[in-house]
Amino acid sequence: MSVRRLLLIVLALCLIAVLVVAATLLTVRQYLDSPLSLPDDAVVVDIEPGMPLQLIASRLADNGYLSWPRAMVLWARWQGFDRRIRSGEYALEAGQTPRTLMALLMSGRVVQYPVTFVEGWTVRQALEHLWRLDNINPQLQGMSNDDIHSALQISLPALEGSLFPDTYFYTKGTSDVAILQRANQRLQQVLTEEWQQRADGLPYESPWQALIMASIIERESGYKAEKRDIAGVFVRRLQSGMRLQSDPTVIYGMGSSYDGVIYRSDLNTTTAYNTYRINGLPPTPIALAGRDSIHASMQPKKGTALYFVSRGDGSHQFSDTLEQHNSAVQRYLRGGAENENN
């Protein structure tokens, strides 16, 4: 075989090799930008700490999501992406490609789960709701409120009312401690902000007392437009030496014995929370107070009303005198309900 012929063969083989490599690279590139075989609903994959890319790709392939796992693994290793994967749960959505999948796994944008603490809940209701959720690490479950208060290192005097009602987001494995501390920090922030802007002459010795008032307002009405009116009534009662006579405080003091109805005997039973029997504020909040109620406690509406009664539609009728209040009770409650006698 001549040298010329040998060179032609070598050149031909090199050309074929180049074409094969080019075709392979083009195929890989097209694959990297092709959608994964995902269902319409988002798929959540859990990447454990230290999990190798080879295992991740293998599991995705086993589930039918990834058709050419080796191509993605080799490309990612060549780019150095395999060393930058972050652990956690990731949501894969329709339209995701191997290229965007790797970007997601390196981003740390893990699945966030919501937990909502509702305005007006007791702290025990909030805790029970939290512990029913998936993916929570319950470190405090089974503990008393006092022990939880200590474990969270809350600076306020009691656990009740010390969480801000809002929606919080967490990742898989987050502890209840972490979520509750965030809710307490948010409460402290809002309480401090409102306290710094409070009206003059309020009958509170501390932000804690204002929070107690806010919790009563929260339980008295969910109607935002009249929270400051209710706050005004209670502030004027405190300033004039009257008792608050708030039914929600009676209910809270009754605990599990409350069956949905307040009887005259309940109003006459002395508890630390029965504001028909005690002077001033109860010792702790009775519920989680939202910002509107906290604001209302710090900025009560000026006026002369000392009484209010439910109209039955969520709003209240306010009265200056007991005579006017009794007439309103007859009008809206038809003289039947003792559990609205504010």
UniProtKB/TrEMBL annotation:
MF annotations from Gene Ontology: lytic endotransglycosylase activity
Tagged with keyword tRNA-binding: no
Keyword Cell membrane among UniProt keywords: yes
Annotated InterPro entries: MLTG-like
Pfam family membership, one: YceG
Catalytic activity: a peptidoglycan chain = a peptidoglycan chain with N-acetyl-1,6-anhydromuramyl-[peptide] at the reducing end + a peptidoglycan chain with N-acetylglucosamine at the non-reducing end
Keywords for this protein: Cell inner membrane, Cell membrane, Cell wall biogenesis/degradation, Lyase, Membrane, Transmembrane, Transmembrane helix
CDD domains linked to this entry: MltG_like
Enzyme Commission number, as recorded: 4.2.2.29
One record GO biological process: peptidoglycan biosynthetic process
GO cellular component, one term: plasma membrane
Site (Important for catalytic activity): E220
Family stated for the protein in its record: Belongs to the transglycosylase MltG family.
Its biological purpose: Functions as a peptidoglycan terminase that cleaves nascent peptidoglycan strands endolytically to terminate their elongation.
UniProt protein name: Endolytic murein transglycosylase
Gene for this chain: mltG
